[in-house]
Structure formats: C-alpha cells, structure tokens
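Entry for the shared binder. Reason: the reviewer on the internal report wants the predicted structure included alongside the sequence.
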Amino acid sequence: MKKSNKVVLAYSGGLDTSVILHWLKAQHECEVVAWCADVGQADELDGLEAKALSSGAVAYEQADLREEFVADFVYPAIRAGAIYEGEYLLGTSLARPCMIQSMMRTVEKHNAYAISHGATGKGNDQVRFELGAMHFDPDVKVIAPWREWDLRSRTDCINYAKEQNIQIVASAEKPYSMDRNLLHLSFEGGILEDPWNEPLKEMFVLTRDPEDAPDKPVYVELEFERGDAVALDGQRMKPAALLEALNIIAGEHGVGRVDIVENRFVGMKSRGVYETPGGTVLVKAHRAVESLTLDREEVRIRDTMMVEYATIVYRGLWFSPEREMLQNMFDDIQKVVTGTVRLKLYKGSLQVVGRKSPLSLYSADLATFEEDSVYDQADAGGFIRLNALRLQMRSKRAAKK
C-alpha cells in the first residue's frame, strides 16, 4: 500500500514541537498528525488539541498511557532494581519506549510515511525514539528537525515563533527544559547548565523543600507480590494509582530529589535535576522485601547485571534482545519477592523500619546472639581457614620474591 503524505509528530505543545509543526508543513510539504501521550503530565495536556489544530495539524490524537507506562515499563525496571549511575531512576528513559510503542500504532492507523520529534541532536531522547520506531517499522522515515534546520538554540526557536506568530509559553528569561510523567519530573537547561548553581527553591513541583516539610513523620506500608507493589496501607491499587498516591505522600515530605551530572549516551556529560518521590519509595521498599526473600547469590548476581540493564534502558534499547534476556532472568527470581514493608518519611529522609514476608529466608533462630542449638560456632573456624587458603598461598609466593 502506498504511504500517505502524513507525518506523525510527537507533540507536547511546548516551544520545540510548536515550532516543528509549522516547520514540517513549510519544509516537507506534508500533513502533520499531532500525537500526544498522557504518561502523567497532569494539566500540561489541557488545551493541546485546540492548539495543535489551530497551528495547522490535520488531526490530533492523545493516548492515555498512564497504566501501561507504570505496569509495563516502570514496574519491570523496579523488579530489575534498575538505577543508572547510582542515582537516576530512569524516568525519561522508561517513558520513551512506552510512548514510541503507542505512537507507532498511530503511524499505522494513518498510514504515515514518517515520524518527527523534538529531541535535540545532543540528547538521549533522539536515540530512544528512533531505535524504538525502527524496531516497530524498519522502513519508517525519521524527521529530526534539530539535526536539519538552521535554528541552533531555544532562543532561535522563540524568535522563529514570534516571526511566524506561533503561540508559545517559553520565554528567554526562563528557558527550563521540563519533562514530566508519573515516575518523575526532570529539569535541564538555564541556570542548571552550570553544575555549581543550586536549583532554585521555587523550581520544584512534585516535592516540598525538606526544610518546609511537616514536622511530624508519616509511616506507610507497601505490600508486594512477585516483585510488584500491589497495596498501599492495606488498600489494593492498580500500578498507576498506587504510584500517583505515593507521589503525593512522598512529595509532601520532601522525598525523592536528585541532582546529578550524568553521562549521556551520545558522549557528553549533562546536569539533571529530578523529582522522583513515589518511585524512590517503591525502589527502597522493593529492596527491603528482597532482603528477606532472595538468596545472597541471587542478589549479588542481579546487582552486577542491574548496572548493565540500567545502561541498556538508558541508551534506548528497551526493545533489544539483551534487555529482554535480562528481564526474564530478573523476573524469574522475583517470584518469591512477596511481603510487606513499613517505611518512615520525614523531611527528605526515607527509612525502612519494618519488613515481613511469608516467604522469608530470615531465621531469628540462626541470627540470634543468644544461645542456640542450630548453629555450631566452631564450624566457622574451618570455613575461614578454607577461604584463607588462596590468600595464604599468594602471600607465601610474594615472600619468596
């Protein structure tokens, strides 16, 4: 079937995609379908359809992906224990494959010949979008304006928008780049490009400043089944609703802020500030259930491979065989990760204060410091001597030299 003259644009209504919609029509002489994903941006989506159509889009489509995002992308990453470079919980990295999966359904529906996005040539998102698109349609054409046009900055985009009478929200005075979904809210650009600058207090949206958080701590209980959180304070909830509720609780108590300089896949370092309140609680609680239910070597090997998994996801390879291979391995050991965790949130701090599981490997009879008849402490001597053999031989060899 011959392709239509349509391009599906990942549309947010922000500065970049507002300019891109106009530019695509002018430079590529195509019809533009404005496509938007609801992954938890809240009121940021208000009025987008009217704005897109008034800007020249032939159609506007919005996909509610909130449940799909949390259940099929966030939860698998939590089961894997995925954290990039020790701190980043992969909020944007997980949203992009969810979005492109849905976006390519729209491409098929409209028989479009190409997709377009507002990711810059310096960032990771161009890789995530395009690798995903090519997974679903090996022949799809990708139009990436930031790699084609002569606009070189957001200031140029603002000026272009003024010249073409395009309605925008951004201004030269506050050109923050913000990206929000149910897992996190990220900030880049502006004063944050200098890693010495402290983020402005008023910049944060999802979390209170810990100094202004309530003076009384709050306790929450999370229940897990086979590695997934299923209930909050005794109430069973679907993944998206549970994460949303945790975002409110943890955000109120200032939990979940991260300020990092990360290594982008394209080769440069980037400073990012992230608010991940609910996700931070989920990761901490999940780890606590694992501490009771997983074997020592399962945890050790999983943690070793987790770094590889997180890197794979960060680099846009969610749909790769290597990610699927690792996911299958992680999910297999998660079958026993069932239990309840009690956590204390107070002025930015998060502590696990209790954990229990019907599948626990923990034995008070073995761990006790009181007298017991289960563990013969004299056995430890032979255990230590056997483990010391290779160290002793190495030292003797060194003494001969």
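Summary line for the report: The chain has a mean pLDDT of 93.
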